[in-house]
Amino acid sequence: MAPPPPAMPVAEAIAPVAAQRDSKINRDLLSVMGRPTLGYLAVLGAALFFMHLAGAVWIYQVYEGLGIAGYTHPLFWGVYIVTFVFWVGIAHAGTLISAILYLFRAKWRNAINRGAEAMTVFAVLTAAQFLGIHVGRIWKSYFILPYPNQRGLWVNFKSPLMWDTFAISTYATISIVFFYIGLIPDLAIARDRATGWRKLFYTALALGWQGTNRQWKAHSRSVLHLSGLATPLVLSVHSVVSWDFAMSIVPGWHATIFAPYFVAGAIFSGFAMVLTVMIPLRRIYGLEEYITDYHFDNMSRFILLTSLIVGYAYAMEYFVAWYSGVEFEKTSFWLRAFGPYWFSTWTMIVCNTVFPQLFWFKKLRTHIPTVFVVSTLVNIGMWFERYVIIITGLSREYNPAVWGLYTPTWAELAILAGSFGFFATLFLIFIKIFPVIAISEVKELAIHEKAHGGAH
Amino acid sequence: MAEIDRRDFLKLVGAGAGAAAAAGCSDKVEKLIPYVVQPEEITPGVPVYYASTCLECPARCGLHVKTREGRPIKLEGNPDHPVNRGKLCARGQAGIGRTYHPDRFTGPMRRGADGTLQPVSWADAVAELAAEIGRAPQKTFLLGGEVGPTLSDLIERFVRATGIAGRTVYEPFAPEALREATRSLFGVASVPVFDLSAAELIVDFGSDFLESGASPTEHARQLAQARDVQSHAGGGARLVAVGPRLSMSVSNADEWIPARPGSEGILALALARVAIEKGAGAGEHQALLGGLLAGFDAASAAAKVGVPAETIVRLGSALARSGRAVALPPGVALTSRRAVHTTAAVLLLNHVLGAIGRDVKVPAAAEGHPASFRETLALIEAMEAGRVGVLMIHDANPVYSIPESAGFAEALGQVKLVVSFSSIPDETTERAHLVLPDHTPLESWGDAQARPGVRSLVQPSVRPLFDTQALGDTLLAVGRALLGEARAAELPAGSFRSVVEAAWAGDDFRAALQRGGRFGELPAQPPSLAPGGLDLEVVAPKLTGEGSHVLVAFPHGFLYDGRGANLPWLQEIPDSVSKIAWTSWVEISPKSAEGLGVEDGDVVAVETSAGRIELQAFVRGGLRDDVVAIPIGQGHRVGRWSSRAGDGLPGEARGANVMDALTASVDEAGGRAWLTENASLSATGASRRLPLLQFSDNQRGRQLGEAISLAALAEAAHGAAEGEAPAHGEPAAHVEAAPHGEPAGHGVHELRAPFDPAADAAAASPYRWGMSVDLDRCTGCGACVAACYVENNIPVVGEEEVRRVRPMSWLRIDRWVGAGEPDLSPGREHPAPSRERLGEVDVRHAPMMCQQCGSAPCEPVCPVIATYHNEEGLNGMAYNRCIGTRYCANNCSYKVRRFNYFDNQLTRWPEPMRLMLNPDVTVRGQGVMEKCTFCVQRVAAARQPAKNEGRPIRDGEVQTACQQACPTSAIQFGNLRDPQSRVSRDAAGQRSYYALHALNTRPAVSYLAKVQRGPVEES
């Protein structure tokens, strides 16, 4: 690294020059929120189309029955649960970047944390819908809540699905609060520049933020405390989701490695999704100055690390299946790799463990097209990972008479597409009404950079 | 479908319940109307039973019709009836559907000018028919299936009184060759009755006696009795099966001889010869050796039959040495053009073995009007010649079941008035000008004769649902209209009911009604060989056509001759052997399949001299390479379930009708022959997934269908006698051990932890309900499955859903071939390749229902406690609590949970089928999981009487539906907390094991391993 430039007195740093820079940051970052272009509207239109298509299919499914999906004896779970786990996984990057990296004082997070947090919230919202889409009687799904009732009906706290309900709802709550608190200073900036109904909107949301010292102090304390709260959640949510599988007795599901394996996989897929989304965004809105090679380098390292963990988990699953000597497990894993679902399995292995190895090279870590392609492949691979675990596990259970084959139907694929539509719709609306990069944090960083010569 | 006058029905039966039937049906409000005057014999909530007779097949089993508030809801066997002894097969169970069939004619119909059937009044219809007959009685014929003796007599009187040209009895599967063979050998034209209950060695020459023979339920019971390991130290009777395919009957044999089809007679004579040589009959048959049996030495017979000569010698010696051997003659599938001689050869073998008069009872005299295919063919000729003006068809569907090449359907065009008495539309009513619907058996008076000496009554258990009229009454009305006042006395007075009463005048009618009939001994005398009887000429039959394969058309176990095809349960329950439902298939051997380049599900064209049909291939090792086999019974073009009309494809056949590839051939004496064609096969290139309900027959040594050798069993019994009784729940270590060396499922068996099956219920509960399933008794017949469907209101989901493998059956029968071994190759294909091998038989039929596990994997995962453990150890299901996460089903290791993917409660019970719903069992709605509950409603029904009498529920007092139906009593139910109960004793027995024991789910169902008796030994 180049030697740091000579330090500058802080006072000088915040003086007129800083003010100029501030306004450039404001201008640059708030320009994303400007009038939508035709391209933007086209993408939003496509997202809305898929979202509504999925909605229509879902209504039809509620009316007609889950039979329109590809379920078969013995595959009682399918693409809906696969996609649920996929989105829960995506939801991990945001909190990880905001909370854990915050606690570790990894400053490079500043440019991406807002987008990642937004993705977290939207991904959790997307995932949560799949619990409703999946159940047979959505109109009775409130039974899963432990509400007091005269009939003395209670829920089963032994069931991992119960834990899921709590884990997801807790995670969604914390993510939303965290996201919102981080937004407040930026909402104030937006308020100050907005006119008309927007002014009203941002005024209400900014909660009277004036940027006073006292407010900043309270704000940073809240962020710190919330980070402390959110950090264990990052680990717990996907652990709980993994227990949906690990607590069962299905061969291929029943494994102690599942919790760390799923958490690593979630972070892996979360970072990949952040990259997949941020790279085009950065290019379209000219944010190269804020999201730099430096960020890509760091995120790619994370992907490489988690890829290795995930790869280790894959290897361990096979090793334990063989080492246990249990025929059920051996058969299940053998057929996972060489049975009817070999394509899914090898897609998963190649996408998740082979391509990320490119990130051993710094050149490739900062070569944006490579990063984009690899992160997209990781997203695909991680969807297939869940598909492989759920589908191959169920298709080869204990009784070979009722082994089966599952193929998703048009309904499931439409709803899968709709989940991306829903997620994209929320994200596209988000970038138009909220600053996609945390202005206040970037400014803070800029000040620090000036003060310390950018030595990090 | 026409609107049903339900109000009238309700008024008639005086009930208005419908509560359970309509529970959860939110879009329709039905009011509960209490009885204003309660009928004396009806207590709401308490079933009333009526004794009657099942008319689904010629076996004529006794019924107890269970009615609730005036509606029959289930058919059960009559325990007093000597044929079925309280048991009832799948066809019998499903027979209830005829009464509630949504396709039923709601009244008499006449074909209008536009070609459709229009309602007409009974008076007009009868008048029209009488007028038409009156114009030319000599041109009027009656054609119909076998009916009860009283109705048959009435028909004869009708024929005589009205002077119509005649009556032909047409029964597709009538044992005409057996009757003729008996006549030629013993001089009596009657059908012998085979009794297997005391046999020691049974040689079955392809009779399919367990699925479609003369009396499947009775013979299954007798077989189970003859080889009950409890009462026979040596393992009991051995069954040797001869036949080209591994049918259900063959799958229950100890040895399979895949003889060339048609060569059974040669084999029988060769066996007779060896047996005589080895001393059978103590010299009295020596004369035969030089005469009839001269050319049938083992070596030359072996070449003709296609089995090694050693096998013939070994088996012949065993027959000679066996104190009690019996041979069963070929069934429908192997009825060739030489059937009479073939059958006579088998009867002669019985004669040599001394079985005639002992295990084969020959009724002294023929009774009734026998079926004759030759007469049927003659009738077709008469029709073609325009000599038939009126043809009345009852209890038969000849348009479907006579091969098209015989020209019946065409000849119908020459008949001025075709009258059908069928209550449900079929191919024949489609061609009828007048439909005068008969009552269904549950609405009828009548009687039936299982065999001479056993005559049972048919009594109605419900008022007719529709404006139908008993065939007897219709004939009486037509006859009276024809004869007028003056000659009315030539026909009996009164209604058909009074005719029946008069016919039973010799008995105490009421007592007979309550008992179900008059059950006496078969009036038989040991017949002697008729002088001309030995004029046998047993040669292999000539087959028509040039094809490379022999076409074997075999009766479908459930559809019989096709009459079962319009009963939805019989379509949905998978065939016992192929596990295919809702369609027909062509069985081809792996070698033939390879030659054709086809796999399971590929559509194959089968071409014979009679025609060409296309069917999906089912490749199986248990079939001769030179044979293709097709089930009889599918390919209907009419009917909601029998054709694809219910799937929105009216007129389209389900599978193909094998009759289209057969010629109307006859045997030497004019009986119908089925084994007549050579067939050539070709691949069509089309392919479709088979509606198949079993993925693999390889149990991979996972303890799902275990077997134990006789030696290991004896050793275990010896050990037990010396006080080394295995711990409770510790299965005999010998199960599936010895001959295979290391247990196949390595890593499974050593993990079995012993447990106390009685433990898993509340401490204070006197009961822990349990079950035992004896695989040695289970024949795979599917009676239990059908009983379960009807008892528990299980919906039938149809072909497309079955193709997606979403059946709703709470009980299924897994069919395993051999002990299985871990095989990592399968999985890409669906289904997994067949493990059957020609000439080898090691099939284990394992009924699989909810195991009511003590440590049930399904229970902890349900988030809403919809499935839970009750205090009596049952794994309960609260349907209304279920939200449908389906986690329980994923976690069920036995895969016995079923999910309602659609709103089955609304869509699968078309009117008036809802009337047959069991009000004691909830009807499940969309999005809900369901499963076997051990018939908890029957437990509940027994609780109150026991409580009233201040005693616990007795062992055997509660019978689950499956247990009650099982012809061989393979299923037992009871209290595991009572050490004396049958289930406790079974669970502690030497053969007991638990399915997937290694998972430690602590099931309440103990399976008793199938006993491997091994091939028949020479000494």
* Distance N to C terminus of chain A: 10 Å
Helix coverage percent of residues of chain A?
over 70%
Mean pLDDT of chain A: 87
Helical percent range of chain B?
10-25%
The total count of helices of chain B amounts to 31
Strand content of chain B: 15-25%
N-to-C series of helices and strands of chain A: HHHHHHHHHHHHHHHHH
Cross-sheet strand order for the largest sheet of chain B: 5-4-16-15-14-6-7
Q: Tell me the number of strands of chain A.
A: 0
So what's the oligomer here? heterodimer
Question: Could you report the average pLDDT of chain B, rounded to the nearest whole number?
Answer: 89
What is the terminal-to-terminal distance of chain B? Answer: 65 Å
Biggest interface reads: A-B, 57 and 63 residues
Task: Give the biggest sheet of chain A.
Answer: none
Low-confidence stretches of chain B: 12-26, 724-734, 736-749
Radius of gyration of chain B: 28 Å
Kindly provide the radius of gyration of chain A, computed on alpha-carbon positions and rounded to a whole number of angstroms: 23 Å
Number of strands of chain B: 39
User: Which structural class should the secondary elements of chain A be placed in?
Assistant: mainly alpha
